[in-house]
Amino acid sequence: KITHQLIQSGWKVSLKRVQRLMRELGIRSIIRKKYRPASNHEKVESRENLLKQDFSTTSINQKWSADITYIHTQKEGWTYLASVMDLYSRKIIGYSYGKQMTTPIVVEAFQQAMQNQQLKDGKGLILQTDLGTQYTSYEFENLLLQYHINHSYSRKGTPYDNSGIESFHATLKKEEV
Length: 177
What we know:
The chain is an alpha/beta fold. It contains five helices and five strands; from the N terminus they run ααβββαβαβα. The protein folds into two domains: about 1-30, no CATH class; about 65-175, 2-Layer Sandwich (Nucleotidyltransferase, domain 5). It has helices at about 1-10, 15-25, 105-115, 140-145, 165-175, and strands at about 65-75, 75-85, 90-100, 125-130, 150-155. The mean pLDDT is about 90.
């Protein structure tokens, strides 16, 4: 990141030079410890994984990925960001931010994605989510049925099944939060 900013400022430096100088000056990047939610050992009902880690698409609005992440702020404490990503363009097409990790936050992000993509019907669209209670809720499932969207679920404990959005959230928190 420092190399990129120096190059943007007009300096001609390489990554290795910046790494060497940082090491000599004792400068290190700040690494924050990740938030680890309490694990739940209850049996989770597995559901169908339609994508099976095949994230390839030929156009927009074929495969979407959605997830929630935790963000700590000084003023509010723990807050939550629900995002929806189109796997073709890798763009965030809908998001919602709030103080509570409840079903309305994922519903709002999904509805924003539908509105931003100007979709009245999602026939043929696959939405990949994890097995979180927000995404398996009656309200969210009915919303997907209403728009004729196929719901694909990640397997329990397998973030790679939803790696596009997981990677985005990790980068967002490392570089911006």
